[in-house]
Amino acid sequence: MDGSDASDESYLDYNATAPVRPEAYAAVCEAMQLVGNASSTHAAGQQAAHRVDVARRQLADLLGCSPGELIFTSGATEANNLALRAAFAPGDPLVTSPAEHPAVLETARAVTAGSPDELVLLPVGVDGLVDLDALSQVFATRRGGLVSLMAANNETGVLTDLRVAAKAAHEADALVHTDATQLIGRLPVDVTELDVDLLSLSAHKFGGPQGAGALFVRRGVPLPHRPLLVGGGQERGWRAGTLNVAGIAGMGAASEAARHSLAEEVERVRALRDRLEHLIAGALPDCRLNGRRDQRLPGVTSITIPGVPADAVLAAMPDVSASEGSACASGAPTPSHVLLAMGLTREDADSTIRFSLGYATTVDEIDHAAQAVKRAVMQVRAALTEAHHPR
Ligand code: PMP
């Protein structure tokens, strides 16, 4: 991926996980040489605690919040679980959408036990946008509760207008949580402008290590103290467990690197994504792009190639890393719940590939992938024709 030669491999699965940024790699290695436990009061422990403080500041700068508003977790799954379990009160509405990541959707189902009085799923349009007008209808007759809507969809990249959602929720005294796992480090963000109360993120989506993440909780948000993990008093009692100093240091370094290069990266990545779509659409005129085109992350495209199973295409181009549906669901034979919620047929959902690009993607990787997709689709179509009309 160094961009020097024509590429013979394309890593286009940043939404599953992004390559570690060099700054994050260096920070992880350096922090692993520290001996202390960040909770210990001796000098070695305080060195580790200092490293955590530096990272907390770096992440806070990326988000535009204060360091004291962050709780470090093992990733976004934990942050989502913590947010929903802490902020949902039985009897109140928990409003979300069927296109959420399972880390929100399954937690929402668990805390409400699926009760239709509590769990409210907003409709999703064919363009992947959540119907935010339906939010006002929910709050026409009720007040309070929690609204949890993802900032950017992991399968389509479609963005939610969080400010509109937050306005409707706050007018009804409801709290707002967003799973911003795919947004942070991909587009510039200021949590004050987003106007959300809780926000989940994960380091490995923006060039930090896997297994590190955070929950932002706006200062003053009235949350009953319901930690997910109890034990020691780490993270102001919100999350017990010895801090993952190296992971947190890596997340901090990735945050700083992303903050400095994001403006330039956004334009570059968007141009590469557009090039990929143009090349694939040129080669496969019947393909369809999913999701609202002008309200998407810059580095994501979801492409349906009707009648051509995505798993067969991906198997025919092992040198291109991309996903069918979401990586978390890969291996499972069920079609993407996101695409089904948008109204795609099961067959079209099964014929959809997600390509996701990021800070280190090169033009050569894009050109290589486009060629590979064309070849793989021709190969799969030939095999399907052969199977239907054996010679
Ligand atoms: N939410 C979204 C939108 C995601 O894409 C992912 C990762 N696939 C997660 C949550 C889970 O993140 P983590 O791997 O940090 O648990």
Q: How is this structure best described in words?
A:
By secondary structure, the chain is of the alpha/beta class. The protein has 2 domains: 10-20 and 262-388, Aspartate Aminotransferase, domain 1 (Alpha-Beta Complex), CATH 3.90.1150.10; 22-257, Type I PLP-dependent aspartate aminotransferase-like (Major domain) (Aspartate Aminotransferase, domain 2, 3-Layer(aba) Sandwich). It has helices at 22-32, 43-63, 76-87, 102-112, 133-141, 162-171, 191-194, 245-283, 310-315, 337-341, 346-350, 363-388, and strands spanning 10-11, 70-73, 94-96, 119-121, 146-148, 175-179, 198-202, 213-217, 288-290, 300-304, 320-321, 323-324, 352-356. The strands form 3 sheets. It has a 7-stranded mixed sheet, with helices on both faces. Helix 3 runs parallel beside helix 4. The protein is globular.
Write the layout of secondary structure elements.
Blueprint: E1 10-11, H1 22-32, H2 43-63, E2 70-73, H3 76-87, E3 94-96, H4 102-112, E4 119-121, H5 133-141, E5 146-148, H6 162-171, E6 175-179, H7 191-194, E7 198-202, E8 213-217, H8 245-283, E9 288-290, E10 300-304, H9 310-315, E11 320-321, E12 323-324, H10 337-341, H11 346-350, E13 352-356, H12 363-388
Parallel strand pairs: 1-11, 3-4, 3-5, 5-6, 6-7
Antiparallel strand pairs: 2-8, 7-8, 9-10, 10-13, 12-13
Helix pairs in contact: 1-8, 2-8, 3-4, 8-12
The chain binds 4'-deoxy-4'-aminopyridoxal-5'-phosphate (PMP).
